[in-house]
UniProtKB/TrEMBL annotation:
Name of the protein: Major facilitator superfamily (MFS) profile domain-containing protein
Keyword Zinc-finger assigned: no
Cellular component GO terms held in the UniProt record: membrane
Upper lineage: Eukaryota, Fungi, Dikarya, Ascomycota, Pezizomycotina
Predominant location: membrane
Native source species: Penicillium ucsense
Length: 471
């Protein structure tokens, strides 16, 4: 049998997108991207969360007493991190484009690793406060930078799984941080150094080492990735760029101007997503910074037990996160996932704040931590699905994470000096979840209305015929 050679046009080639060979090739390329980009970014974020949250572990291990953290000094120290964290968010998504992700992201990881080492040798609470302020400056760029970078590499209905792996590894690291802290405080007295100081010193060493590794692992944007440590060939980069461009038509980088960067500030949905993230992170930061203290002072567990019991809720959160992310990408819907997760928190918070038994309250901690943290990648995916344009995406990422910091400021003020039930914090967290639920509903109704108008030919969404908002 003679096989006739046929030259395919570009249109015919695109029609073969579901062909086995193309699908197999696509899977190989995406697996390569996942292993380098998602895991590299996730490793950096894991130490980011560990280094931000280890003050809670150190607090119950003797830091508060040794450095004279009386009154509201601990809350002030937690709060001031978020002040600089919010202020330095917007420039980060511009700088990552100018400097390049490998240098920018690995550089700030190294910087906060060095600051962690300095925290281990602080002599007063004011020195810890100063280091935390600087930590906010350097940590500000990492999360929005990674979020922006990841959203540039994947299709709209691939991102939630990747965001969940990225954020979920951080949650597992937060779980392990408690167990690691429990081990490190047993170095108390080694070289004449207190156990709580070893938490900062050893985690600082780990962070510096991962900063070097992330310089190798983290890759550039798709249009420049062929130059990233022989990561992808030029042909593979072109393939990735073409599939992204077919999905949302915004793969090409746009020249930066301040007006172009700030123009999305007039888009109401940008601020809707920011409000959602503020409500979410008010809950996540409250658990990250105060859970060991709640377990110790609120439920009466010892130092070691409080540090170890802080771990299981984060592991459970990661499992819920991965499961809901897989479902969300599979059904190509975001709102049902957001509703499900927020309901977990709305059930867990009253259990944590109003039940009398420690067992019931601890189950409430599981639901609260899982609901809030599982919704973080779900919210990020919803935002990434409904935003087009390079600098619109950059501005939206910056505002999202800036409001993340505002959530952290609120969390730092509402869970202090209210043991054993922390009712003011519980009421505030419940209010945040109700606002989250209502904001999701309002955005979903507006998106549905816009999609129906586009179906009738009355409007063109985001300037792209055929583009529809994800609900």
């Amino acid at each position: 049998m003679v096989t006739q050679h046929v030259d395919l046009t570009e249109v015919q080639k695109e029609s073969l997108a579901d062909d086995y060979n193309l699908s197999h090739r696509e899977k190989q390329i995406m697996r390569k991207i996942d292993l380098r980009l998602v895991l590299g970014a996730a490793l950096g974020y894991s130490v980011n969360l560990m280094d931000r949250g280890n003050v809670g572990m150190a607090a119950i291990a003797g830091m508060l007493k040794d450095l004279d953290f009386v009154g509201y000094r601990y809350s002030l120290m937690v709060l001031m991190f978020f002040v600089t964290y919010v202020i330095f968010q917007p420039p980060s998504t511009v700088l990552i484009r100018k400097i390049g992700p490998p240098k920018f992201l690995s550089g700030i990881i190294l910087s906060w690793g060095i600051l962690m080492l300095g925290m281990g040798f602080a002599k007063s609470w004011s020195q810890v406060l100063a280091i935390r302020i600087l930590l906010g400056v350097f940590a500000a760029g990492y999360f929005p930078g990674c979020m922006y970078l990841l959203s540039c590499w994947y299709l709209r209905y691939e991102v939630q799984k990747r965001f969940s792996v990225f954020y979920g590894i951080g949650c597992v690291a937060s779980a392990l941080a408690g167990i690691l802290a429990f081990g490190l405080i047993h170095m108390d007295g080694v070289q004449g150094i207190a156990g709580w100081r070893w938490i900062f010193i050893m985690e600082g060493v780990i962070t510096v080492a991962l900063g070097v590794l992330c310089y190798i692992l983290i890759v550039d944007f798709p249009d420049k990735a062929s130059r990233s440590w022989r990561f992808l060939s030029v042909e593979e980069c072109d393939f990735v760029i073409s599939r992204i461009d077919r999905d949302r038509h915004d793969v090409e980088p746009e020249a930066f101007t301040l007006g172009r960067f700030l123009k999305p500030a007039l888009d109401i949905k940008i601020w809707g997503f920011a409000i959602l993230f503020c409500c979410l992170t008010m809950n996540t930061y409250a658990m990250a910074y105060f859970l060991p203290i709640i377990l110790s002072e609120g439920m009466g567990f010892g130092v070691g037990a409080s540090q170890c019991l802080s771990a299981p809720p984060w592991v459970f959160a990661a499992l819920v996160m991965f499961a809901t992310a897989w479902i969300g990408d599979k059904i190509q819907r975001r709102v049902p996932i957001l509703y499900f997760n927020v309901c977990l928190s709305l059930i867990g918070l009253p259990m944590m704040g109003f039940l009398q038994s420690n067992a019931g309250r601890y189950i409430g901690v599981f639901l609260t931590v899982a609901g809030a943290n599982a919704n973080v990648p779900a919210c990020m995916a919803w935002q990434a699905n409904n935003v087009r344009g390079q600098w619109t995406r950059a501005f939206s990422s910056a505002t999202l994470i800036a409001f993340d910091g505002i959530g952290g400021i609120i969390a730092s003020l509402v869970f202090e000096k209210d043991a054993p039930h922390y009712r003011p914090g519980v009421y505030t967290a419940l209010g945040a979840n109700i606002v989250f639920f209502l904001t999701v509903t309002a955005l979903a109704l507006w998106y549905r209305r816009c999609n129906r108008r586009a179906d009738r030919g009355e409007i063109i969404i985001a300037g792209v015929p055929g583009f529809r908002y994800t609900i």
